[in-house]
Amino acid sequence: MVIMLQPEPVTLNNSQVYVNPKCKPSPVLIPVVNLTDQNAKTQIVKACEELGFFRVINHGVQPELLTQLEEEAVKFFALPQSHKDKAGPADPFGYGSKRIGPNDDVGWIEYILLNANSDTKTTAVFRQTTPTFRETVEVYMEEMKDMSSKVLEMVAEELKIEPKEKLSRLVRVKESDSCLRMNHYPEKEETPDKKEVGFGEHTDPQLVSVLRSNDTEGLQICLKDGTWVDVPPDHSSFFVFVGDTLQVMTNGRFKSVKHRVLTNTKRSRLSMIYFAGPPLTEKIAPLSCLVPKQEDWLYKEFTWSQYKSAAYKTKLGDYRLGPFEKQLPFSISSV
Ligand SMILES: C=C1C[C@]23C[C@@]1(O)CC[C@H]2[C@@]12CC[C@H](O)[C@@](C)(C(=O)O1)[C@H]2[C@@H]3C(=O)O
Ligand SMILES: O=C(O)CCC(=O)C(=O)O
Ligand SMILES: [Fe+2]
């Protein structure tokens, strides 16, 4: 099953511009994976290779949980600014507004970033919210852990990676460095027909990210040829992004997908995105079962902790894998 995406021109920073002159006139097909389908593994791998992105249906997450989390998020973001600010600043965890990350990236956004590890449950956000907020977030994070590990297990089975838990274990163990982000892109009365940059273009650093949004558009992904396409919102589906770490482990066979959010300022957008990351001490490198000869590795080995530290020194749109790429021998690169 596929859905059609129609690229469209957008308005940025109050002036009408074509963000990408290579906007394709032809429709683009986004893969849809039915998690209960017996071909799901094959479809996931194909989507990760071709786009680094796919939509998931029949995922088994109860709609009531999604509604409840959305309601809790709406309640939080509707609080007075002075109250929300007590849950911030995001460093990186906590409540943040307009600033994304530590390096002067900005967007038309406010958000909560939460570490999935239990030791940070005392975070300022939970001091400013109700016990129901916290309980709902915890249940949701468990569901997201299950979904990301299921996707990774399917990838491992299809690529014949042994043992089949090799990837999924990374996001299941208690040391996994995963996080949940709740993004709110508010409506903007003074520019009702314009689009703003909500979240600038970037790739996600982790293994995979699992996103769910309300029914407001705004998310775009970048195709391999540089064309940006809209992802039609669907509040009952999840969307999975390949992250930089999975790109490295598959030696570039899967590509982390560049994406961004251009907000429709008439209607607010709300998204929840779970970033499934490995333990900080985990060594990341191309998997030897996929690429046995080290001379064929496109990336050097590094720990997730090293990658994260380097990532936090970059701006959102930077290519973060550059310093971790291996230099090809002169004889090969000059061919
Ligand atoms: C500008 C930045 C924000 C970010 C850390 C970084 O320095 C570069 C990567 C950014 C990103 C993108 C995906 C996720 O939203 C995020 C939480 C992550 O892991 O990497 C953000 C970081 C952030 O907002 O703290
Ligand atoms: O809000 C969205 O739809 C995407 C957000 C995103 O890419 C992120 O939080 O890393
Ligand atoms: Fe992202």
Automatic annotation (TrEMBL):
Reaction(s) this enzyme catalyzes, per UniProt: gibberellin A1 + 2-oxoglutarate + O2 = gibberellin A8 + succinate + CO2
InterPro entries recorded: DIOX_N (IPR026992), IPNS-like_FE2OG_OXY (IPR044861), IPNS-like_sf (IPR027443), Iron_ascorbate_oxido_reductase (IPR050231), Oxoglu/Fe-dep_dioxygenase_dom (IPR005123)
One Pfam family of this chain = DIOX_N
- Keyword Iron assigned: yes
Transmembrane domains' residue ranges: none
Please provide the record's keywords in A-Z order: Dioxygenase, Iron, Metal-binding, Oxidoreductase
Annotated pathway: Plant hormone biosynthesis; gibberellin biosynthesis; Hormone biosynthesis
What are the protein's GO molecular function terms? gibberellin 2-beta-dioxygenase activity; metal ion binding
Enzyme Commission code(s) on record: 1.14.11.13
PROSITE patterns associated with the record = FE2OG_OXY
Residue span of the signal peptide, if any?
none
Location of the Fe2OG dioxygenase domain: 175-278
Q: Does the keyword Iron apply?
A: yes
Provide the family line: Belongs to the iron/ascorbate-dependent oxidoreductase family. GA2OX subfamily.
Q: State its role.
A: Catalyzes the 2-beta-hydroxylation of several biologically active gibberellins, leading to the homeostatic regulation of their endogenous level. Catabolism of gibberellins (GAs) plays a central role in plant development. Converts GA9/GA20 to GA51/GA29 and GA4/GA1 to GA34/GA8.
PANTHER family found in the cross-reference section:
2-OXOGLUTARATE (2OG) AND FE(II)-DEPENDENT OXYGENASE SUPERFAMILY PROTEIN-RELATED (PTHR47990)
Kindly provide the name given to this protein in its UniProt entry: gibberellin 2beta-dioxygenase
Q: Which organism is it from?
A: Raphanus sativus
Q: What is the lineage of its organism?
A: Eukaryota, Viridiplantae, Streptophyta, Embryophyta, Tracheophyta
Chain's gene name: LOC130509590
